[in-house]
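A reminder before we start the practical. When you read a complex entry, don't treat the lines as separate problems. The point of joint prediction is that each chain is placed relative to the others, so the output describes one connected object in space. Small molecules and nucleic acid strands, if listed, are placed in the same frame. In the example below there are four entries. Take a minute to note the order of the lines before looking further.
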Amino acid sequence: MARPRAFDMETVLNRATEMFWTRGYHATSMDELLKHMKLSRASFYTNFTNKETLYQMVLERYRNTQSGVIERVISLGLSPLETIKRILTVGLQADAEGATNRGCFMVNSTSEMETLNEDVKEIIRCNQRDMEGLFEQLIRKAQEKGEINPSKNAAVLAAYIFSYFQGVKLSSMTHENVEVLQATLDVMMGALV
Amino acid sequence: MARPRAFDMETVLNRATEMFWTRGYHATSMDELLKHMKLSRASFYTNFTNKETLYQMVLERYRNTQSGVIERVISLGLSPLETIKRILTVGLQADAEGATNRGCFMVNSTSEMETLNEDVKEIIRCNQRDMEGLFEQLIRKAQEKGEINPSKNAAVLAAYIFSYFQGVKLSSMTHENVEVLQATLDVMMGALV
DNA sequence: GCTATTCTGGAATAATCGTTCCTTTATTTT
DNA sequence: AAAATAAAGGAACGATTATTCCAGAATAGC
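Here is the predicted structure of the whole assembly.
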């Protein structure tokens, strides 16, 4: 009936992600975006509405990818405490590979949050709630199993883990020595037991 | 001889800081900036060269303020470990007061780093080096005093503290419960001993 | 072949960007 | 009063912003 879409949606969304990830929303112009996505202006607007919608779409997609990675770690059937550590380990590796020093897309979005629309803010808040909720749940299980002292406040520990997690991801942008950063993970875990 | 400057430099720089702090560099337009600084276009350009230079000036100034606060904490003569804790405590309080949810100016700048000029990047890298250096020094002293296990790697602990520090400051942007965040500080300190 | 859809490429829009410049008024010191 | 500087306000700059629109070529199924 009609000419099919020539570009691969996944490829194009990945390229858009790279762009927003490294340069943020406001510093990314449509010209740069189109050039990097290898898309004509017309194709872009018919397929993605506008810049704002694309950003939202791409951030949500990043979040889903991360969730998938976490789900897979959980399915490994490790102990609660080991699961926490593994999540952080792969989370750190994921952002390290690929382009250098771009940090974490979600972290960068958070610091740009005030200037983004309400839908994007909701994605970010939702991510924070979910991550802390997951950590809290894992901590409770670990406490039942005796891996973590049951007298400790699970919600506080969860907030602690999440804060640290965001922090290392930010540090990875400036830090030259990656081994040191990975070593901090063990230090962090030491505070849990 | 001549008409003296009417605006107060400190006041105006504080207003500029607020602006860049909450909205970042790229999302802050000159119109908004001038309106918020309560300065005419002409006065602005004769006094501050341009937007880029002002940002640089204001970030450097923020850093100096922070350094001053730290110096004052150090001069209290607390033990090395207590000094570390106090630095983090006041650092957390400093960003909490004033406008809400704006996080930390330096942290926000870091995530926007890739799109800023080399001079600004240098300020950020310098801040990281200095902060980690300070923490490392305090840790070594604490190890000599027996407050911290001497077998632990001081550089790794320093990177750990700094990562956590950046992380909580970021968390403060999304987190509704401030008490929980402050409680994470004790958890973090637990990993040092 | 016909129709429908998507492609590329570029023109054109209106708005906004940072910056420069000019004019007028105000306030200081000599 | 004269000289010097700074203020405010606004016009104007060219560049760039996001977005819309149009023309023509390409490719699918009927």
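Discuss with your neighbour: The mean pLDDT of chain A is 92. What might explain this?
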